[in-house]
Write a structure and sequence with these properties.
A 3-stranded antiparallel β-sheet has the order 5-6-7. It has a two-stranded antiparallel ribbon with strand order 1-2. A two-stranded antiparallel ribbon has the order 3-4. The protein contains 16 helices and 7 strands. With about 425 residues, it is mainly alpha-helical. Helix content is about 55%, strand content about 10%. It is elongated. Helix 7 runs antiparallel to helix 8 and helix 9 packs across helix 11. Strand 1 and strand 2 form a beta hairpin. The longest helix has about 35 residues.
Length: about 425
């Protein structure tokens, strides 16, 4: 039997001990991220939001095998937030519609969910399609099937189309009530319940994830969404589908689904934390060097590293990235060294690695103390205290760990790189 074939199938149950512990951890991570965002400027918040929404839109579509142009999506999102990009690309009407759908879900999260609103989202996903029912509930049976003809495997069979309107009416009523379950669990249950009803011919996964984000956005409160659950689902897509299938074949015990979902949220927050660090470091760098003389080519290469390119900054890599000769690469680098933007590794005369100078503050005046590297699984983090009080922590790239081990940079160098945004 499938989950919806049981009487009162939406009266889900779960292991409260296992889920409760994870729920507390997830809420702690969300609170940490919100606190970090609250401590930075509004412009940096907008930049982080643009990246998070872009990641969410692109990943949610890619889960379903639909590849969107990331630059188009980012340009559409940035335009709606009033953010100016160095590199912009005119989005298609299709991309604009998908972005509007996602922003309606996350930034109008206090508006009631209605059938008409869902129909509008469906129209945005499938503009002009005539080979399917668009902007209305499905009128045919629906099964998720894999395998060759004659040897098909049915993964899930949704409720019959005659049940869909009533199921959706109950779902929408449940969504609009505030007295059922805590928000973070409501997001998980809403996703499961919606995709189990499977009310549309297509697009149920993307709309289901938009509904999940809608509930999560209400927890953020500030109208800005700083992490992408869809991006994490994409990374763990096979596991996502397996857990979903097992849950949809259960008798209403959704513990496994909630455990997977809460872990996915925590992973998404960690991923967002790393992305936020890049945004902050990049903003600090360009603020410090706003008056410097930098060519378009130099800016392009610098931005590649500032956006997280994990390789040593050498003349050889500069030559390859910029598609120029070695002599031109060396002239580009030398001009930046003379302006204090790049710093060569002392004592090296061949294949010199350079460090990016994120701040104009002198090293001997460092406000960072107790700087250390700690390991968590396969990841390495730099920890420190700012002015002997505020604890700091950030993920360190594999390249920087190698440079640290090789003596090319110091712990204080890393502290200035990762926490320069605090210096104003």
């Amino acid at each position: 039997m499938f989950i919806h074939e049981y009487d009162d199938w939406t009266h889900f149950r779960w292991d409260t001990d296992a889920v409760g512990a994870l729920q507390l951890r997830a809420m702690h991570r969300l609170g940490y991220l919100a606190g970090r965002m609250a401590a930075i400027g509004f412009d940096s918040q907008l930049s982080a939001t643009v990246e998070a929404v872009t990641n969410d839109v692109v990943a949610s579509s890619e889960i379903e095998g639909v590849r969107l142009d990331t630059d188009e999506v980012r340009s559409s999102v940035a335009r709606k937030f009033g953010v100016t990009l160095q590199k912009s690309k005119d989005p298609t009407h299709y991309v604009e519609g998908i972005v509007e759908m996602m922003l309606d879900a996350t930034h109008n999260q206090k508006e009631p969910l209605t059938a008409e609103r869902l129909f509008g989202w469906h129209h945005a996903l499938f503009p002009g399609r005539r080979d399917m029912t668009v902007g209305a509930y499905r009128t045919e049976e629906m099964s998720v099937v894999s395998g060759m003809f004659g040897r098909e495997r049915i993964h899930y069979r949704a409720p019959s189309p005659d049940r869909v309107p009533a199921e959706m009416e109950r779902f929408i009523d449940w969504m609009n009530r505030e007295d059922n379950v805590p928000g973070i669990l409501k997001s998980a249950i809403a996703h499961l319940r919606f995709v189990s009803i499977h009310p549309f011919d297509d697009g149920n996964g993307r709309i289901g994830r938009a509904i999940s984000d809608m509930v999560l956005a209400a927890l953020d409160g500030a109208g800005m969404h700083f992490y992408s659950l869809s991006r994490q689902i994409l990374k763990d897509k096979n596991h996502y589908y397996k857990v979903l299938e097992r849950t949809q074949r259960s008798d209403g015990d959704i513990t496994e689904w909630l455990v997977w979902y809460l872990n996915a949220i925590m992973a998404a927050v960690d991923d967002s934390d790393a992305m936020l660090s890049l945004v902050l470091r990049k903003a600090a760098f360009w603020n410090t060097h706003s008056q410097a003389s930098i060519s378009d080519r130099q800016r392009m290469v610098l931005n590649k590293y500032l956006d997280g390119y994990d390789a040593k900054l050498t003349a050889k890599n500069w030559e390859r990235i910029a598609a120029v000769s070695r002599d031109t690469a060396l002239r580009d680098i030398d001009a930046l060294v003379k302006q204090g933007i790049l710093v060569p590794t002392p004592g090296r005369v061949r294949d010199i690695p350079y460090s990016i100078n994120y701040t104009s503050h002198a090293m001997e005046e460092s406000p960072f103390s107790n700087v250390a590297i700690e390991s968590v699984g396969a990841d390495r983090f730099i920890t420190a205290r700012y002015k002997d009080s505020t604890p700091l922590r950030d993920r360190v790239s594999a390249t920087d760990i190698r440079r640290l081990d090789d003596g090319e940079i110091t712990l204080q160098d890393l502290a200035y790189k990762h926490f320069a945004y605090l210096l104003g």
